[in-house]
Amino acid sequence: EFRRVLFRSKKLFEMDGIKLEFTEETYDFIVDKAVEYKLGARGLRSIVESIVMDAMFEVPAKKVDSFTVTLDYAKSQLEKSNLK
């Protein structure tokens, strides 16, 4: 399910011509948060969506061809969300 969630997010960015990537440490962070919050597959989707939601709207306006979700970015976005 995690791969499907990431695939879906990447496809949304591809529609705007942007390659979405995640660092390995970001993958670990997302999974750790899902375990911490005792969430299943839907929880993983919620975490990923919370992390990339702002980027979905901001990055295409920057006219870039790729965007990498770093650990720092993921942490800051998750802190802003009300996902607990």
Task: Walk me through this protein's architecture.
The two termini are 21 Å apart. Strands 1-2 form a two-stranded parallel sheet. The protein is mainly α. The chain contains four helices and two strands. Helix 1 (2-14) runs parallel beside helix 3, helix 2 packs parallel to helix 4 and helix 3 packs across helix 4.
Relative strand content: 5-15%
What spatial form do the alpha-carbon principal axes imply? globular
Kindly report the spatial arrangement of strands forming the biggest sheet. 1-2
Question: What is the count of DSSP helices, taking H or I runs of 4+ residues?
Answer: 4
The value of Rg in angstroms is 12 Å
Number of strands: 2
Let me know the average pLDDT.
92
Class by alpha and beta content: mainly alpha
Q: In angstroms, what separates the terminal alpha carbons? A: 21 Å
The ordered string of helix (H) and strand (E) elements is: HEHHEH
Largest sheet: 2 strands, parallel
Percent of residues in helices comes to 55-70%
Which regions have little confidence, pLDDT < 50, spanning 5+ residues?
A: none
